[in-house]
Amino acid sequence: MAKELRIKNQKPGEAKGIKAKGKAVSPDDATGTNSAIGIQHSEIKETLTTDHSPLTTKMEVHHHPEVEKKGFKEYILEGLMIFLAVTMGFFAESLREHIGDNNREKEYIHSFVEDLKKDTASLQYSIRRLNVDVKNCDQLIGLYGKGELTQLPDTVLLQLSNQCGLSVDVFFNDRTASQLKGTGSMRLIRNKSIADSMLQYWNNQFRIEQVHNRFESMRIEQRKMGWKTFNWYGINYNYGKSMPEKMEIKKAISNVSNLNEFVNICSTIYNAGGSQYLPQLQNQLGLAEAMIGMIKKEYSLDNE
Q1: In total, how many domains does the chain have?
Q2: Is 250 inside a domain boundary?
Q3: Tens-digit pLDDT profile for residues 110-140
């Protein structure tokens, strides 16, 4: 009874320990041939030292095939063939660029001729208006100098004074010019005479703009003085009225004291318009017409 109680009070591991201590040791355990996990030491050694492949292997050496030596003539021939291939490629590329440049040149020339045609129409219109200013100023100044200006009928005097200060603006088409100058494509124009004429034509536009600005400033001063001198409201009203009934104009001059200053400004417009502005416009028109003829002859554009 007491023995059974001792056995029950023991821990599970203690009973196994007693059996382990009392267990007989086999000869294999004594010599260490068995491991603690039950694997034979011979098997471990075999796996550690035995390999199915040899430890040292022979590397295969690939020998380059023997190439037959070339002679000096063969090297010269190969070099010549390479040189010819590169040269032919260069000439082919140059020819392609030359053809492309010729096509682009024709496109620019055709576009420039269209711009010139529009410019000539604009110049002709501006020249007609400027001639009206110059002619009316000349007549008004001559009548005033003779003392006959105030003797004109009111309607005639109002028309004459109002028509001697017309605005004269010029519009140049710069579509082709901006493309040629902006992209550096002026080199495509082969004809030197045409290229020089184009540059001169564009340079003239700056001078015309300067003369126009001076003429316009004087024209505005003339208009301001004319509003203080004449009753222009009647003719301006009648110009813009579509109905057949027109305003009756009774008196042309509203302030005689301003008439002398008005005539002085008209003389300045006459001088600037007749001796500066008009020659510039006429010269530009002649250059544009000459360039159209020159370009049509050079590029065979007679049928366009």
Answers
A1: 1
A2: yes
A3: 999 999 999 999 999 999 999 999 999 999 9
Confirm whether pTM is higher than 0.70.
no
**Which pLDDT belongs to residue 25?**
45
Domain range for 289: 95-298
Mean predicted confidence (pLDDT) in 259-283: 96
Residue 19 lies in a domain: no
The two structure tokens encoding residue 151 = 């003797």
H-helix segments, 147-255:
154-162, 175-182, 192-229, 233-240
**Spatial CA neighbour of 270 closest among 132, 127, 155:** 132
246, 238 contact by CB (below 8 A): yes
Distance separating alpha carbons of residues 208 and 284, to the nearest angstrom: 9
Domain membership flag for residue 58: no
Q: Is residue 22 part of a domain?
A: no
**How far out from the chain centre does Cα 208 lie?**
27
DSSP element (H, E) containing 80: helix 72-146
